[in-house]
């Protein structure tokens, strides 16, 4: 493993090893407090962030490393200088680059032109660190994560694709339920379906909400991702049946609710579900740090 650009670059063994290491670091952080001694990580963000920025910063600190944040003005790739020049220069000083970009091709460009590991902290196509934290959360909740039945409801976006790839590689069952015209990219769906077949998983895509029945966990995300200029009023009309509320949770028979956050309360999910007993949202947020630390330790030590 040289970079973490997308979950589908991992084998099942690599993914399981990352989850196992994340659990070890979470259980005994003291054992890893020098894991990144003398290492510097640059975090380059073209979009806002709370969880990703803070969990990387504090996580790197807990591993004994140092991190430096380039904000949306200084981290805007291709504006003041090219992605290639950015990558070449950062590689002179940093031991790794964590990047959140509008275009996934910018993250690929950093990996291609730099000389240090690159970690995708969210792009238009993928959010692998989120999916790692989510499968860590599910593996804490269920004995065998490959037996989990996960349903994603709402907009087919970067979070959806990373969950699809993760579920497929773990051999789990996942149903993606989106309004027509809002499914994840067809090419990525086909790739995820191939992986699901290879690893004994099952991936189903539908617009029919009846398919929600019989799932362990229901996952949703914002209906409008960062960089998408669609008006919420237009989206609300099409998406309102797909809101995760108490009735939908009951129909699913699900014991867990998941959301990567930030959430739009009262839009894609109700307060009742967000703050209810099935909600895993804060466990997911906490696990961002442990999952990312496992990635950093794997790539850098
Ligand atoms: N879930 C997530 O990535 O949150 P942020 O956008 O706040 O980093
Ligand atoms: N799909 C969302 C995830 C935010 C963490 C976005 O890209 O804005």
From TrEMBL:
EC number: 2.1.3.3
Subcellular compartments: Cytoplasm
GO molecular function: amino acid binding; ornithine carbamoyltransferase activity
Major localization listed first in the record, in broad terms: cytoplasm
Residues in coiled coil: none
Gene Ontology biological process terms in this record: citrulline biosynthetic process; L-arginine biosynthetic process via ornithine
GO CC, any one term: cytoplasm
Binding site for L-ornithine: 158, 221, 225-226
UniProt KW Heme keyword: no
Pathway membership, UniProt: Amino-acid biosynthesis; L-arginine biosynthesis; L-arginine from L-ornithine and carbamoyl phosphate: step 1/3
Keywords linked to the UniProt accession: Cytoplasm, Transferase
Domain (Aspartate/ornithine carbamoyltransferase Asp/Orn-binding): residue spans on this chain: 147-298
Pfam families: OTCace, OTCace_N
Domain Aspartate/ornithine carbamoyltransferase carbamoyl-P binding stretches: 2-140
Family matches, as PANTHER family: ORNITHINE CARBAMOYLTRANSFERASE, MITOCHONDRIAL, ORNITHINE TRANSCARBAMYLASE, MITOCHONDRIAL
Protein name, as recorded: Ornithine carbamoyltransferase
Taxon lineage: Bacteria, Pseudomonadati, Pseudomonadota, Gammaproteobacteria, Alteromonadales
């Amino acid at each position: 493993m040289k970079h973490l650009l997308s979950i589908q670059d991992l084998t099942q063994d690599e993914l399981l090893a990352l989850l196992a290491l994340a659990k070890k670091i979470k259980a005994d952080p003291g054992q890893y407090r020098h894991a990144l001694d003398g290492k510097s990580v640059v975090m380059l963000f073209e979009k806002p962030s709370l969880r990703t920025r803070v969990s990387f910063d504090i996580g790197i600190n807990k591993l004994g490393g140092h991190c430096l944040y380039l904000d949306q003005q200084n981290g805007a790739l291709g504006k003041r200088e090219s992605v290639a020049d950015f990558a070449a220069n950062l590689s002179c000083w940093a031991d790794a680059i964590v990047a959140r970009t509008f275009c996934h091709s910018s993250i690929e460009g950093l990996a291609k032109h730099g000389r240090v590991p690159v970690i995708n902290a969210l792009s238009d196509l993928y959010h692998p660190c989120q999916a790692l934290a989510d499968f860590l959360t599910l593996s804490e909740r269920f004995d065998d994560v490959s037996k989990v039945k996960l349903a994603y409801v709402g907009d087919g976006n970067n979070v959806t694709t990373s969950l699809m790839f993760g579920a497929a590689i773990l051999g789990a069952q996942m149903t993606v339920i989106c309004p027509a015209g809002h499914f994840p990219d067809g090419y990525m769906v086909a790739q995820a379906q191939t992986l699901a077949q290879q690893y004994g998983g099952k991936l189903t895509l539908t617009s029919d909400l009846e398919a929600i029945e019989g799932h362990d966990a229901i996952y949703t995300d914002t209906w409008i991702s960062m960089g998408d200029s669609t008006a919420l009023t237009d989206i609300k009309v099409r998406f309102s049946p797909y809101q995760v509320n108490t009735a939908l949770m009951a129909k699913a028979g699900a014991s867990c609710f998941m959301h990567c956050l930030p959430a739009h309360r009262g839009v894609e999910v109700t307060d009742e579900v967000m703050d209810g007993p099935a909600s895993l949202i804060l466990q997911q947020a906490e696990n961002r740090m442990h999952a990312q630390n496992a990635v950093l330790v794997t790539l850098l030590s």
